[in-house]
Amino acid sequence: MSFIRSQPAGVPWTREQVLNLFNSFDKDGDGMLSKEEVKAAFRKLGSHWGGFRARRALRHADANRDGLISAEEINDLANYALKCRYTLKQL
Ligand SMILES: [Ca+2]
Ligand SMILES: [Ca+2]
């Protein structure tokens, strides 16, 4: 099974856009991203497997293994999201 879809019409997200998106998904405003918040953000990025991506992303970026992405860890989270090569659909 392939998790990669080709979306030739899309434009890749920039690092800045990805970071802004993740920050905007801190719904409870505690400065940390929970797995649910990460999952919602990945859905917004265009993932059809938000839960799968959230688990993988946390494993990748959650350096202290507390299940939350802190401000220090969010750069690694963005790196992971950028590696997934989601694209921004043209409006
Ligand atoms: Ca939060
Ligand atoms: Ca953490």
UniProtKB/TrEMBL annotation:
InterPro entries: EF-hand-dom_pair (IPR011992), EF_Hand_1_Ca_BS (IPR018247), EF_hand_dom (IPR002048). The keyword Metal-binding does not apply. Keywords: Calcium. Residues 13-48, 53-84 form the EF-hand domain. Transmembrane segments: none annotated. It comes from the Eukaryota. Pfam families: EF-hand_5, EF-hand_6. One of its GO terms (molecular function) is calcium ion binding. This is Calcium-binding protein CML10. It comes from Pyrus ussuriensis x Pyrus communis. The lineage of its organism: Eukaryota, Viridiplantae, Streptophyta, Embryophyta, Tracheophyta.
